[in-house]
Amino acid sequence: MSEIPLKCPSCGSSLAITQLGCTTCSTVVTGFYPLNPFLKLPADTLEFLVEFIRNRGNIKEMARESGESYWAIRSRLDKVVAEFSYEEQTEEFISLKRKEILMKLKRGEITAAEAAGMLQDLAQ
Asked: I need a surface site. Which of 11, 41, 46, 53 has the fewest CB within 10 A?
């Protein structure tokens, strides 16, 4: 299975999903759909999360199975939590939210006044 590209091959900027298509009837839906944050995680972090879930979040059990110390695993988990927390505050996230608001305005889902308010809230 090929991975979804996250960066533009021409300029290196972040990519977003802007079109979805039905595999049965060929209906196409266009819009702005931010990528799931899990798609942005490195493969080793995803493997760690799979093991964490498989062990029902039991760090002691993970330590026993892997031979790593409790604190090493706890540190890895703290890094994953930090990655998600940081994601919400990055300029990229704000840019994606701004585009999402403008797409809603373009599709007529919100008024110009609502869009202006949402953009102002985003800037704070």
From this structure: 11
pTM over cut 0.85: no
Q: Which domain holds residue 57?
A: 37-89
In a domain, 14, yes or no: no
Residue 95, Cα to own-chain centre: how many angstroms?
13
Question: Does residue 21 come out as left (phi exceeding 0), alpha (psi in the -120 to 50 range) or beta?
Answer: beta
Q: Is residue 47 part of a domain?
A: yes
In a domain, 98, yes or no: no
Instruction: Reply yes or no on whether the pLDDT at 2 is more than 70.
Output: no
Confidence of residue 78 (pLDDT cuts 50, 70, 90): confident
Domains: count for the chain: 1
